[in-house]
Amino acid sequence: MSANSTNRRNSILIASAITIALAGWMLSGLGNRLPEEPARAGGDGSAAMSVTVRTSTARTLPRQVVANARTEPDRVVEVKAETDGRVVTIGVERGAFIREGSPIVELSMRDRAARLAETEALIRQRELEYEADVKLRNERFVSEAQLAGSEALLVSARSARERILLDIAHTKIQAPFDGVIYDRLVEIGDYVGVGDPIAQLVDADPLIVVGNLNERDIGSFKVGASGTATILGGREVQGRVRYLAPVADESTRSFRIELAVPNPDRNLTVGTSASLILDAEEISAHELSPALLSLADDGTIGVETVDHSNRVRFVPVELAGPVGNSVLVTGLPAEVRIITVGQGFVTDGQTVTVVEEGSAAAGRGDERTY
Questions:
Q1: Beta bridge partners of 334
Q2: CB–CB of 245/199 below 8 Å?
Q3: Whose CB has fewer CB within 10 Å in the chain, the N or C terminal residue?
Q4: Interhelix angle 112-138/144-169, nearest 10 degrees
């Protein structure tokens, strides 16, 4: 017999043994728990089932929306060269913090200083020529057109100087804002041209916690609302909503929401998992154990209740969020009797015998309850 056949046979034997054991346990439990049902007074001779109920009163409290989230930087910029030249100085290493305006790298000056000196001399010449033409124009030896030509040459020389000064300034490639160098893409000796990437700069203050809200919840929030984020590891941080997507994602039908969290020390890291907890509008809700929730045949979540005529009523509810080991549900009346023992053995519309939770009858055990 092959090893596969042996393993298959062993699996079947184990599964059979577990099934038999479960069946025996269930039969023994039914023998201890199932009572002889008493006759229903004045009815058709059938027994009325006994259930334990608890009167629950709704509370008014703020609803919380919890969403899975992740942390992102406030902004990420790829710094690029705005002039050409060879890298001669490295100002900061990868992973280091850098202040706005500090140099990331410096490029060689090449002939820029000589071209600046040449332009300065040309400007002096153009200024003298223009001043002379102004005097001659006053004496009517120079026409308006000639004077305008002299002025244009002076303006052109000055513009050339500004372009050279700007080109010289661009040889120092500086950080556009405070941040951390995520990556530096050049080394000393590299030649870069206009538009070549130099470094990636990340700003993580504030840190952005990004989540997605469904279409039912997005209308409950506004930009500027406060919120809490639990970062991976359990640390709770406070922030404010800075962005709500005006259009849902086509694939998920959810709306992007961004919570801005102050991070001046930059000790909150980017790219980690988080939970987003947002306070929505106040709601009237009941706090219940999850064990009291039932499922209808169509999958609707609800609670088995008893009305004033002691008839079982299945009431659909919506989950409004967790509270410790309990859940908040909406959709129930302000005060309602909820079946706490026996809810799994009743049907909608069934008349039952009601025992209040905490009463002497309920304290005698399950001799008449399911």
A1: none
A2: no
A3: N
A4: 160
Query: Would you say residue 370 lies in a domain?
Result: no
Q: In this structure, how many other beta carbons lie within 10 angstroms of the beta carbon of residue 200?
A: 17
Q: Which domain holds residue 298?
A: 36-58+289-363
Task: Give dist(CA 47, CA 41) in Å, integer.
Answer: 9
pTM equals 0.62
CA dihedral sign, ordered 241, 245, 249, 252? positive
Longest CA–CA span in the chain (Å) reads 132
Q: Looking at residue 233, what is its pLDDT?
A: 80
Alpha-carbon gap, residue 284 to 279, rounded angstroms: 14
Q: Which of 110, 109, 105, 108 is nearest to 198 (CA)?
A: 105
Structural domains counted in the chain: 4
Above pLDDT 70, what percent of the chain? Answer: 84
Same-domain pairing of 89 and 176: yes
Return the amino acid letter for 59. Answer: R
- CATH classification of the domain holding 352: 2.40.420.20
Strand partners for 75: 203
Mean of pLDDT values over 196-210: 96
Number of alpha carbons in the 13 Å side-chain half-sphere of residue 350: 21
Residues of the chain by 3-state class (helix, strand, coil), percent to 5: 25, 40, 35
Domain end, chosen from 149, 175, 203, is at 203
Residue whose token pair is 């259930």: 51
Between the CA of residue 121 and those of 31, 113, 154, 189, 340, what are the distances in Å? 111, 13, 11, 33, 96
Question: How many Cα neighbours within 13 Å face the side chain of 279?
Answer: 11
Contacts with 347 (C-beta within 8 Å, 6 or more apart), sequence order: 312
| DSSP letter assigned to residue 17 | H
